[in-house]
Amino acid sequence: MRKPIIAIDGPAGAGKSTVARGVAAKLGYLYIDTGAMYRAVAVKAAESRIPLDDPDRIVDLANNLDIYFLKEIDGAQHIFTDGDDLTEAVRTPEATRLSSPVSAIPGVRHRLVELQRKMGAQGGVVMEGRDIGTYVFPDAEVKIFLTASPEERARRRHKDLEAAGIPAEVEKVAAEIRERDQRDSSRAMAPLRKADDAALIDTDDMSVEEVVQKVIDIHDSKVKECCTG
């Protein structure tokens, strides 16, 4: 029987990547970080000196990029474009800042959604982003919407940046998150929103382990329902 697709959506800083990695590891599923794919396009656009106000060139770039994920010797999943390992490059604040306007370009979304659907078509994947359950895989068997208060999301993002040795001020991080929320929820194509049939999980007072287990419980319930139904 085909394994389920687990779609995890939510705003910036809600813990999607950490939770999705944990769920995939426990279930033995493939983890696909769609946000990293948009950041990879943004990084390549910056390297090619393509301005954000030239969407046609950015779409052309995206259409010609080969983007894929591989597990390396260190056991971590890395993202590559045309053979270049961009795992570190896509995690910088600059890549994050550039990725939101890049992701709002319809042609870029069409291209990356095409790649994402190919990656997840066989099931057994945990895919996280902002439009997975509403647009990429509207028929996903398991849909989760992770959220947290803006203050908590800013605190988490600030902590991650500090751990990576990247200086940042909490107030600035909070402002960037609010700006990102506004852009993502108001874009014309596939805006950030909770799918009607997605389970809402507020992670404010939950540990990562608790959230991972809750997602797995929802997954197991759906699998049991499918098998007995």
Structural write-up:
The strands form 2 sheets. The chain has a 5-stranded parallel sheet, sandwiched between helices. A hairpin with a 5-residue loop joins strand 3 (67-71) and strand 4 (77-81). It is of the alpha/beta class and 229 residues long. The chain has a single domain (5-221), classed as P-loop containing nucleotide triphosphate hydrolases (Rossmann fold, 3-Layer(aba) Sandwich). The chain starts with a strand and ends with a helix. The protein has helices at residues 16-27, 34-47, 55-63, 93-103, 106-120, 132-136, 150-163, 170-186, 208-228, and strands at 5-9, 30-33, 67-71, 77-81, 84-85, 125-129, 142-147, 199-202. Helix 1 crosses helix 9 (208-228) and helix 2 (34-47) packs across helix 4 (93-103).
Tags for this entry?
229 residues; 9 helices; Rossmann fold; three-stranded antiparallel β-sheet; 52% helix; alpha/beta; five-stranded parallel β-sheet; 8 strands; globular
